[in-house]
């Protein structure tokens, strides 16, 4: 047990590196998005939510190609992507972008 903890502490993505603390700090975005799920969708900024979706998508790719591969960072951005896409769908529904269109009656 002690050797596993020591290996984690000294690993290239362990808590002594920014590869660990960067993803930890990004959980603030996820928690804020989750807290906003109960707020009215009219308060959602569509532009900012779209930017957060692009940001998380890009950084999921970065977390995959960086060496050493950072699975924690990838999981963090995948979680943020999920939360932001849900918020974006709430915004789109509130703005009327996702309404079902009735076919026009033929005369």
UniProtKB/TrEMBL annotation:
<keyword id="KW-0999">Mitochondrion inner membrane</keyword>
<comment type="similarity">
    <text>Belongs to the mitochondrial pyruvate carrier (MPC) (TC 2.A.105) family.</text>
</comment>
<dbReference type="Pfam" id="PF03650">
    <property type="entry name" value="MPC"/>
</dbReference>
<comment type="function">
    <text>Mediates the uptake of pyruvate into mitochondria.</text>
</comment>
<keyword id="KW-0472">Membrane</keyword>
<feature type="transmembrane region" description="Helical">
    <location>
        <begin position="44"/>
        <end position="64"/>
    </location>
</feature>
<keyword id="KW-0496">Mitochondrion</keyword>
<protein>
    <recommendedName>
        <fullName>Mitochondrial pyruvate carrier</fullName>
    </recommendedName>
</protein>
<dbReference type="GO" id="GO:0006850">
    <property type="term" value="P:pyruvate import into mitochondria"/>
</dbReference>
<keyword id="KW-0812">Transmembrane</keyword>
<dbReference type="InterPro" id="IPR005336">
    <property type="entry name" value="MPC"/>
</dbReference>
<keyword id="KW-1133">Transmembrane helix</keyword>
<keyword id="KW-0813">Transport</keyword>
<dbReference type="GO" id="GO:0005743">
    <property type="term" value="C:mitochondrial inner membrane"/>
</dbReference>
């Amino acid at each position: 047990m002690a050797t596993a903890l020591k290996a984690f502490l000294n690993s290239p993505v362990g808590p002594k590196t920014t590869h660990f603390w960067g993803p930890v700090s990004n959980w603030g975005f996820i928690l804020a998005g989750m807290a906003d799920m109960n707020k009215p969708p009219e308060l959602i900024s569509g532009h900012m939510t779209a930017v957060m979706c692009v940001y998380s998508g890009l950084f999921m790719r970065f977390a995959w190609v960086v060496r050493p591969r950072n699975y924690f960072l990838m999981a963090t951005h995948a979680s943020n992507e999920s939360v932001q896409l849900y918020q974006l769908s709430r915004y789109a529904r509130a703005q009327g972008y996702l309404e079902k269109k009735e076919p026009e009656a033929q005369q």
